[in-house]
Design a protein that fits this description.
mainly alpha, MetI-like fold, globular
Length: 333
């Protein structure tokens, strides 16, 4: 008998902690998309209103036309059967259906608009990370007037909803000062940055406040720990103490709050895109809901859920790179 056959309890090839983590996150992503697709599909089909009315745009239909639409969209099938057919079309052919309003595939419609939303969220994330984390660190290290001013500004921004921030920014910087455009996407890199600056600030305002306050509290708590005081008493330069002993230990909670706030931007972008007339998937989601374009609502909702889960997985992966003492295998277990 060979050694391989005689070895009891052999489990096959060993997977590294990183591989197990990635496989677990992929499984969670698939599960989240599956559950979300089911909830969204069932909710839309059980919502008040007649599907035929939505398909016809509210116009009256003849019996022949109504029967043809019922057969085409399988409206006489049970809702679970329709969901199964929808799921097979999405998984096997990436077919998210056809937009009733635009008469084009939903996947094409999303592909044409997702770039604007991705740019807006990325721009806002950069503002949150650079200015939110930076202001929190400065407030923690500089007491007195600087700390008080940063806390006052963050308190005001935390109380301002995104749509209110959008109105104020348009009124001041677009209408009164004429510094930045208020509407549209722009063309080219410089044009996109110019048109997305006000929307990105409006989207990042309240998240900036949250990140600033959490960063301030976390860094200040690390400053009071014994090992930091010991490092100072041993004559280690203050910038080195802050970088190695304070910011390194504070990186995990700061990364956590940054990840949560950035992923929340995918939901908030719908309001901001509508306010600034941006041609992104957030604005398309609102218009589709108003027009009862169920295929578009389902498709965009799935994309937003997938982006949310994927962003959370990336944040979890960053933990191991920011602090090697964090075992990625423990995070994935």
């Amino acid at each position: 008998m060979s050694a391989v056959a005689a070895a009891p309890g052999r489990r096959g090839p060993h997977l590294s902690p990183l591989a197990r983590f990635i496989l677990r996150r992929i499984g969670l992503l698939v599960l989240a998309l599956l559950v979300s697709s089911f909830v969204i599909f069932i909710s839309l089909n059980l919502a008040p209103g007649d599907p035929l009315s939505a398909l016809s745009g509210g116009r009256s239909l003849s019996k022949a036309t109504a029967a043809a639409l019922t057969r085409e969209y399988h409206l006489d099938d049970p809702v679970l059967v329709r969901y199964w057919d929808y799921l097979k079309a999405v998984v096997l052919h990436f077919n998210l259906g056809t937009s009733i309003q635009f008469r084009e595939p939903v996947s094409t419609l999303i592909g044409q608009r997702i770039g604007v939303t991705a740019e807006l969220v990325a721009y806002s994330a950069v503002l949150i990370i650079v200015f939110g984390v930076g202001a929190g660190i400065v407030a923690a290290l500089r007491r007195g007037a600087v700390d008080g001013s940063i806390i006052a500004v963050s308190t005001v921004l935390a109380a301002v909803p995104s749509f209110v921030a959008a109105i104020v920014l348009i009124a001041i910087f677009a209408v009164d000062l004429h510094w930045l455009p208020a509407l549209g996407n722009g063309s080219g890199f410089a044009g996109s940055i110019e048109h997305l600056t006000l929307p990105a600030i409006a989207l990042a305002a309240s998240a900036f406040a949250v990140v600033t306050r959490v960063t301030r509290v976390t860094v200040r708590a690390e400053l009071g720990l014994e090992h930091v005081q010991t490092a100072v008493s041993r004559g280690i330069p203050w910038p080195l103490v802050v970088r190695r002993h304070v910011l390194r230990n504070a990186s995990i909670p700061i990364t956590t709050v940054v990840g949560i706030t950035v992923t929340s931007l995918f939901a908030l972008c719908t309001v901001v895109e509508q306010a600034f007339n941006l041609n992104g998937i957030g604005a398309a989601l609102i218009n589709a809901a108003l027009e009862k374009d169920f295929g578009v609502v389902q498709g965009i909702s799935l994309v937003l859920v997938g982006a949310f889960v994927l962003a959370n997985a990336i944040v979890d992966l960053l933990y191991a790179f920011l602090d090697p003492r964090v075992a990625i295998g423990a995070r994935a277990s």
